[in-house]
Amino acid sequence: FDNRWSLIVSRLFFPGRSKLIYKYRGLEFLTDHAAGDANGARDLLVSDMYREHFRRMTIGKQLNVLDIGANNGGFPLLLASEGFSFRKLISIELNPKTFGRLESNLSRNFGTEVAALNAAVCGTEREISFTAGNAGTADNIYLFNNSADRSRTFVDGITLDRAIEMFGSDPIEICKMDIEGAEFEIFDSENASSIARCKYLLIEIHHNPEHPRISVIKRLNGFGFVEIEPRPEDEFHHVHLFENQKFIADKTGLLND
Fold first, then answer.
1. What is the mean pLDDT of residues 43-71?
2. Dist. CA 167–CA 12, nearest whole Å
3. Counts for the chain of helices (H) and strands (E), in that order
4. What secondary structure does DSSP assign to 118-176, as a single string?
5. Rounded Cα–Cα distance for residues 37 and 18 (Å)
6. 16 pLDDT tier (thresholds 50, 70, 90)
7. SS3 content of the chain, % helix, strand, coil (to 5)
8. pLDDT at 53
9. Which helix (H) or strand (E) holds 105?
């Protein structure tokens, strides 16, 4: 990070100071170490979790991006650090505490080019009740502690179709989705067909025996998506990159016409 020495001093000599500003390639973002943000934007920027997939995409430098499960804004910060800009960016985050830092980081770096929404993307329109922690990358709509009613949080649950409708008639170059297991109910519903308006889908599929990743992959195949360099067939969660073959075929047909 550009300000790594001041960060090291803060962490060594002021350990109680949990909220720090990180600087990276001309960008600035707020990280709350006490809330789990260190596994959000900070780790995402210095790892190949998403960066390795960019070289496999055929995209311009100005993008429409839908970021679902945005945490504190690491994905658009990563894109910006790699030289991309936004025609339109919509970031959606479940936890209200994390959402506050997401809004701050987006406005700090992108001004009015972006929009943020505190909501959960799920299979049906409904109110989502969950137990909110201090915020972190593992927050999900299924986290509920019956003995902690005072910590219950309510947010709007919206469908993937509704989220994509916020772009109007514009196509979306990249949809990124990391929603801790809710991808299964989304792609098991009848409210996800608008995904066909996206050229690329970057999705972390949280595989387990009860919810095998192949169920999501088959549904995406039905929408015209093909996985680029498929991930290993093991029990681990992986970030998968899918390319919409129908999207590309339609755009090629329009160019030929």
1. 94
2. 45
3. 9, 12
4. E-EEESSSEEEEEE--S--TT--TT---TT-GGGEEEEEEEEHHHHHHTTTT--EEEEE
5. 10
6. confident
7. 35, 30, 35
8. 95
9. helix 96-110
